[in-house]
Design goal:
- By secondary structure, the protein is α/β, with parallel strands linked by helices.
- Helix content is 26%, strand content 31%.
- It is built from 2 helices and 7 strands, in the order E-H-E-E-E-E-H-E-E.
- The strands form 2 sheets. A 5-stranded mixed β-sheet has the order 2-1-3-5-4.
- Helix 1 packs parallel to helix 2.
- The protein starts with a strand and ends in a 13-residue tail after the last strand.
Length: 146
Amino acid sequence: MTRLLKHVALVSESDQISPNDLMKVASALQKQATRDLAPLWDIDATVNAFGHIADVPIDYWPIIIRDNIGYNAAGIHLDDNGQPFALVTADPGRDVWSVTCSHEMCEMLVDPFGNRLVAGQSLIPEQGRGNSLVEVCDPSEAAPFA
């Protein structure tokens, strides 16, 4: 059975991120998607850097880097009319933006609409079984754990 290939676009709308750094991170994300995500989650994806959001083909899921994403978070993934996308806060001084791009890419590819649930035993014994949202990168999202 052939898996559906997903396409991710990395776009910076921040002057703080150089085109060279954007391409390096896109290359690293491609390696991560192929080597780490594909075998465990049965996902195939391409990751490409683009200079402007207008250059991104319609079938790509963009990760847009901005100085201010409008949320009190380093990054977030959402969807608009069934089209997943992610927003990432630029922070070139600490390289956190690249870690956040990785986090958002993985979560967006595994759960594009942020609603994938799995049943399991609660960590709190008296709660029994329940549903948990699939958040594949939350345990490692802080820069010290990257």
